[in-house]
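Interim report, section 4.2 (structural modelling).
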Amino acid sequence: MIEGCFKILHSVSLSPGLALLDGRKLFSSPGSANFLSDLYHHLRAEYPKFFKMDVLCKTGFLAAEILLEAEKAERFVMRNDRAVLLCNASSSITTDRKFIEGIANIDDFYPQPSLFVYTLPNIVTGEIAIRNKFSGETSLYVIEKRDDGILSSLIERAFTDDETLSAVAGWVDASSDSEYEAELFLINKHL
Amino acid sequence: MELIEELKLKVIEALNLEDMKPEDIDPDAPLFGDEGLGLDSIDVLELIVLMERNYGIRISDSKTGKEIFASLRTMADFVSKNRTK
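Predicted structure of the assembly:
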C-alpha cells in the first residue's frame, strides 16, 4: 500500500475480467477475451482513439477513466496542478514484440507507425494527460518489480514543487495482450 | 469488389477503427480534421504504408499526400491510376 504525506481519494484495481473501485466491484466479465473493450463500452468513454491504443495504454486509460469519474468533478478542464506518475516492470514489451515481428521479414518490410508509437512505454501517461487536459508532470518509471515504497517516494517528490497539488499515480503493467494489471490512485497533496 | 469498398475495409483494419463499419464511412467526407473520420498524423503514416504495401504506390511528397488523402474517393482515384499491384 502506498503511504506518505498525501491523501488517497480513490483507488482502482484492474485485472483481466475484473475492475474494482475503492475495493468494490465496478464491472466484471470473467473469461472475456475482450474485457478491456467490454469495460470501455460499459464506461461509455466515447474516445475512439482508445481502439488504436496498445494493451498497456488501454489498461492505464480505463483505470484513469474510472478513477476520474469517481471524483465527480467536472472533467476535461485544463489544469497544471495534477501529475500523472506511473510505474511498471514490463515497459512496452507487448508492442515491442509485435513491432519486431513486423520488421523481421526483409521481403515484407513495412514498419507500422501505429505500432512504433507504442514502443515508448511512457505514451500511457501522455494518453491520460491528453484525454484529461492535465499539463502537469507526466512520468513513467520502469522498475524491476512492483514496489509501493518507490511509488510513495515518487509521489512525495512530485508534491515538493510549487505547482503539483494532485496526482493520478500507481502501477500499470502489461506483459502480453492477456496479462495486464493496474492499480491507480487519485491522490491529493496534504496542504 | 469495388475499390472504394475495398479501401474502406483496409482503412478500418489498418487504423483499428473497431466500432466503425464500411457503411459508416462517407467516401466524400474528409479523412482528417474534426469532420469525417477525424484521423491524425500517425494515421496518415499508416495510410502511406497501406498504399505501398497493398498497391505498390510510394508517396513521399506531403503536398501530393494531402490531395490523395482528402477523402476515400480521392484515395481510390489515385490508386486506380497509379497502382503497380
